[in-house]
Amino acid sequence: MPQQVRGVVSRAKDAPVELVTINIPDPGPGEAVVAIAACGVCHTDLTYREGGINDEYPFLLGHEAAGIVEAVGEGVDTVAPGDFVVLNWRAVCGKCRACKRGRPWYCFDTHNAKQKMTLEDGTELTPALGIGAFADKTLVAAGQCTKVDSSADPAVVGLLGCGVMAGMGAAMNTGNVTRGDSVAVIGCGGVGDATIVGARLAGANRIIAIDRDPKKLDWATDLGATHTVDATSADVVEAVQALTGGFGADVVIDAVGRPETWKQAFYARDLAGTVVLVGVPTPDMTLDMPLVDFFSRGGSLKSSWYGDCLPERDFPMLVDLYQQGRLPLEKFVTERIGLGDVEKAFETMHQGEVLRSVVIL
Ligand SMILES: NC(=O)c1ccc[n+]([C@@H]2O[C@H](COP(=O)([O-])OP(=O)(O)OC[C@H]3O[C@@H](n4cnc5c(N)ncnc54)[C@H](O)[C@@H]3O)[C@@H](O)[C@H]2O)c1
Ligand SMILES: [Zn+2]
Ligand SMILES: [Zn+2]
Q1: Which of 215, 193, 196 is nearest to 206 (CA)?
Q2: What is the pLDDT of residues 61-98, one digit of tens each?
Q3: What is the dihedral of CA 150, 92, 59, 256, to 10 degrees?
Q4: Residues 210-226: what's their mean pLDDT?
Q5: Among residues 134, 143, 144, 169, which one has the least CA distance to residue 19?
Q6: pLDDT tens figures, 263-319
Q7: Ligand 2 centroid, distance to 92 Cα (angstroms)
Q8: Are 145 and 78 in contact (CB under 8 A)?
Q9: Ligand 1 mutation target, pool 191, 240, 304, 357, most atoms within 8 A of CB
Q10: Residue 105: nearest ligand to its CA?
């Protein structure tokens, strides 16, 4: 039977989000209905609300979630009712050119549910990143459900569904950080701090955290940064060079995504080092730099989408490491809030007071 549940919807650009009743269809072939246990508030939810992604309002927000599979549709054999899952926005198709070339993390045809969830009057909802998990339940493609250790705290492991995975993967997968590397991270919000955790796990022996907010630098240190640079008073490039024997870092990660921070990342790395852009620039931003610098400094300039992750490979592994006490993922959960508090959480996020607010259902 189709069900009615509560969901947080954004109806129009810049209007506050609303907690309303939504309709969830029964899962069709290849689909699953998931009862949400927890969902983190990510910057991208706010970007949807502000019209920064597209204008397909109304949006059903929320996408960093964990929950229990309630029902599955025809042909689903990867998950079953009762399974504890983290939701992902990269259910790879296995058939596109990227998948066939053995690079499924670039999949061009990732799966989402085919049926639509709707408002009570039948208006179709656009779920954020194909998930829509600020709701009691949501409808997704079964491939968006990744089974993990069911004893893990959903508020913590749900964050792997987006920002924490994006950050950790930017260091481990995109940046290929390895033992003995020096790593610098510009911007220590939830994503930048996750790159620090990823760099530490990968064996980096020098991790330099750079931010304009002293509180963020304290949190970064708590999560594994070995050195900090206050970007309001120091020259970032000189400071990174001074902390790396005059060379620059092997890998510099820009977790802000602005022309000035990317330039700092470019010049703060060692010759033939790697720059990873994980912060998302806006379409109006441009870069003006001497082309010869690209040539003469060599190395690798990369962007990281969702940390080049493969949810089926990475989520269970990271949950296991967290459960063993080897990953401090619980430190990303700054506050636990209710489904009616999402608008307030956007404000708290804007003021830089949290790494993550997590809605508990
Ligand atoms: N690539 C992906 O797949 C992916 C996934 C999720 C999020 N993101 C992006 O990652 C970025 C960071 O997300 P977040 O949740 O950590 O955001 P956030 O707002 O929590 O953190 C940004 C941090 O950067 C700092 N900062 C801002 N300007 C700075 C500057 N000039 N120099 C140094 N520090 C500066 C801020 O003080 C803050 O601590 C966003 O652009 C977000 O859209 C990318
Ligand atoms: Zn594919
Ligand atoms: Zn996100």
Answers
A1: 196
A2: 999 999 999 999 999 999 999 999 999 999 999 999 99
A3: 90
A4: 97
A5: 134
A6: 999 999 999 999 999 998 888 899 999 999 999 999 999 999 999 999 999 999 999
A7: 5
A8: yes
A9: 191
A10: 2
Fold of the domain spanning 3-161+328-360 = Quinone Oxidoreductase; Chain A, domain 1 (3.90.180)
Rounded Cα–Cα distance for residues 345 and 40 (Å): 10
User: Structural domain boundaries of the chain?
Assistant: 3-161+328-360, 167-305
Look at residue 187 in the predicted model and tell me its pLDDT. Answer: 97
The pLDDT, as a whole number, for residue 197 is: 98
For the chain, report the end-to-end CA distance as a whole number of angstroms. Answer: 22
Residue 191's pLDDT is what? 95
Mean pLDDT across 215-242: 97
Rounded to the nearest 5 percent, the helix, strand and coil shares of the chain are: 30, 25, 40
The pLDDT of 175-204, averaged and rounded, is 97
Q: List Cβ neighbours of 329 (8 Å cut-off, separation of 6 or more).
A: 156, 157, 159, 160, 164, 197, 318, 322
Tokens for 279? 């912060």
Tell the residue number behind the tokens 């990281």, with chain if given. Answer: 304
- The atom of ligand 1 lying closest to the CA of 47 is 43
pLDDT at 283: 85
Q: Give the atom of ligand 1 at the shortest distance from the alpha carbon of 192.
A: 16
Which ligand is in closest contact with the Cα of 230? 1
Mean pLDDT computed over every residue of the chain: 97
- 280, amino acid identity: V
Cβ atoms within 10 Å of 306's Cβ, excluding its own: 23
pLDDT tens figures, 147-189:
999 999 999 999 999 999 999 999 999 999 999 999 999 999 9
131-141: buried (b, 16+ CB within 10 Å) or exposed (e) per residue?
Answer: bbbbbbbbbbb
Task: For the domain covering 167-305, report its CATH number.
Answer: 3.40.50.720
Nearest ligand, CA 161: 3
| Ligand 1 binding site (Cβ under 6 Å of any ligand atom) | 43-44, 162-163, 166, 186-192, 210-213, 216, 231, 255-257, 261, 278-280, 304-306, 352
Token look-up 């072939």 returns 29
Assess contact for 194 and 168: CB atoms under 8 A. yes
